[in-house]
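Format is sequence with structure; example below:
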Amino acid sequence: MAQLLIDLVKSFDGLSLKPYRYPAVFRTIGYGHTGFDVCENMQISKD
């Protein structure tokens, strides 16, 4: 069940390996991870 929910969230949000602003205040990276810990220069991998 948990993996089904994770896959559902991934299908709606998509993957971003570099941060982007969403909606306008917080940066977002990965599959919808937002917060003050996401920096402009940050980059992640799929692993």
